[in-house]
Amino acid sequence: MTGACAGVLSAEEVSLVYADGDRVVHALSAITLRLGPTGFHGVIGPSGSGKSSLLYVLAGLRRASIGDVAFDGSGYRHMSDAQLAALRRERFGFVFQQPYLIGYLTARENVMAACGSGDVAPATHVDGLFEALGIAHLRDAYPHQMSGGERQRVCVARAMANSPSVIFADEPTASLDHTNGHAVMDLLSSYRDRGMVIVVTHDLEMLAGAERIVRMRDGVIDG
Amino acid sequence: MSKRLAHPLSAWLYLRRNPARALPVALVILVSVALVASVVSIIRSIDLTVYTMYGYHRRLAFVAPRNALELRPEIARAVRRDPLAKRVHTVRAALITVRTVFGKMPFAVLGLSPVAMKEVLSRCGLEVSAGRLPADGAAEVAVSEEIARNLGLAIGSVVLRPGSEDAYAPRPMRLVGLLRGPVWMAVASERFIGETFELSVESLLAMADSEDAQRRLEQSLAVRLNKAHARAWTFATLVRETRDALSSLYLIMNVVIGIVVFAIALLAGLLSSIYFRQRLPEMATLAAIGYTCAYLLRRALHETVILCVVGWAGGFVVTVALLAALRALVMEPRGLLLNPLDAGAYLYASPLPVAIGAFAYWSVWTGLRRFDPVSIIERRA
């Protein structure tokens, strides 16, 4: 890792091709991108444009078919699955479209579950995060006791639990109403000074204030 | 102060908060352990019955003539001169039958002289708990309390009689005493049997100083006796014959238990597979946020091990309680034997949790091998 690469996420000529039944899907074609180390970035595009695929490849959840993605100057291609998992656990945070939380855990336990397989984050740290995100009242609630917006806010807390370098958010407001959607985006946006936030969305309004917006169309960057 | 909580992904927490998923598997293991251990305990009560009923063979060796009513003099001499045989007595036996879990079994009423009777009872650790010992030459019998319970006898009852198919004697023989001790025993007067029974076989009863010496005496008799003219009835022959007689039964039992273990393990494995599929979103989320498949597999294994241990322990407790109740309410009042803490029976049930755990682990492992968290997360989307 060099100093210039610290916290920087880069993609070099990345393509993603996969089989979907009998069909071969060219999800990404020769994407070259450099983001970070801080800031609030958006990826926007119509359905099927490859924006979610780009997010998954950048996050190490999918391996690029061609090209490579690097974080902190370390390419994913030469990392094992376990090393990629460790990178996701220690340096990245995730918010998905559906605010999925583990049903039998309280909000606080769900957040603590993201704090490492062999480690238990001090409860005070998690409680502080809940306070900061304005969801302290949800701390001991179970997912079925929360609204969709509340669950997604807990997901944001979970993404921030490890103080990650990058938070990846895939359509985090898609299942929420306008008010809750903005509230979640505000929470994510608030992290821009501590690390990088990359949000995939089809709603340009949600990216107000983004440092950079990457527009995707048919698997390529279109501006 | 920083307060630390239990890890939210601990197996215990999952099982505690998901009783609807944990209990069915634990219950399957519990019931199957109880089923296997109970059946095996009851079947093994046959051995227990044989070794208890005829347990006096541990302390007494009998040498009986073949095709004759008396031993040849040279054989009798050989027995009496064996250096390990510290006491040798003449014995004449009458037969009664006792009830067991597998039907009626013959039991010898040992006809002994008054001196021999006292020595034999003392050697076997028996004492008179009620009544008295049979008088020399009298039509009297003393039996162990267990035999009296088994046959529903009380002091004064007729034990052997002329018209009986199971306990024949030319003249009625009454119960005059009860014996208490570690082995079952029935004794009568040798003189009475010799004088009353038309055909009574005269055998020898040989006793060594200790159980260890008794075993060596048995081996010595087995080597020295001319088997064409005499036969030694020892504990070793009892064990061998019991095993031979029960070998087919145990073979059938092993096959049936093997099938039961396989079927139950398959069922539990399928349950685990269903539960695993229901938990795919949880697994996918954990995998996405950085937990490796190896970690998820270890976690599933930990949950399975806990369920197996809890299920087995529960099965053990339930089996002990069931068998203890069965023994107290059904078996003991009839003088039948059953050991609720038969370690061998629980050993038979031990492959169950192992097989169930292996099937469950295998089903989760195959699920995780084809696991793609992104496709699960996207499908939810």
Mean pLDDT over the residues of chain B = 88
The global form of chain A is globular
Number of domains of chain B: 2
Structural class of chain B: alpha+beta
Radius of gyration from the alpha-carbon trace of chain A, in angstroms? 17 Å
The number of distinct β-strands of chain A equals 10
Give, in spatial order, the strands making up the sheet with the most strands of chain A.
6-7-8-3-9-10
**Span between N and C termini of chain A?**
29 Å
Helix segment tally of chain B: 13
Helix-strand sequence of chain B: HHEHEEHEEHEEEHEHEHHHHHH
- Overall pLDDT metric of chain A: 89
Instruction: Indicate the multimeric state.
Output: heterodimer
Outline:
Chain A is 27% helix and 28% strand. With 223 residues, chain A is an alpha/beta fold.
Describe the structure.
The complex is a heterodimer of chains A (223) and B (381). With 223 residues, chain A is α/β, with parallel strands linked by helices. Chain A has helices at 51-58, 81-91, 107-112, 123-132, 148-160, 178-189; strands at 9-20, 23-35, 39-44, 66-71, 74-75, 92-95, 166-170, 196-201, 212-217, 220-221. In chain A, strands 6-7-8-3-9-10 form a 6-stranded mixed sheet. The mean pLDDT of chain A is 89. With 381 residues, chain B is α+β, with helices and mostly antiparallel strands. Chain B folds into 2 domains: 3-50 and 243-380, no CATH class; 56-237, no CATH class. Chain B has helices spanning 11-17, 19-53, 73-81, 114-123, 145-151, 190-196, 211-224, 235-278, 280-288, 293-331, 343-348, 351-369, 373-380; strands spanning 61-65, 87-100, 103-112, 127-131, 140-144, 158-160, 173-180, 186-189, 202-207, 230-233. In chain B, strands 1, 2, 3, 4, 5, 6, 7, 8, 9 and 10 form a 10-stranded mixed sheet that branches. In chain B, α1 packs across α10 (293-331), α2 (19-53) packs across α10 and α10 runs antiparallel to α12. The longest helix of chain B has 44 residues, at 235-278. Chain B starts with 10 loop residues before the first helix and ends with a helix. Chains A and B meet through α2, β6, α3 and α4 of A and α1, α9, α10 and α13 of B.
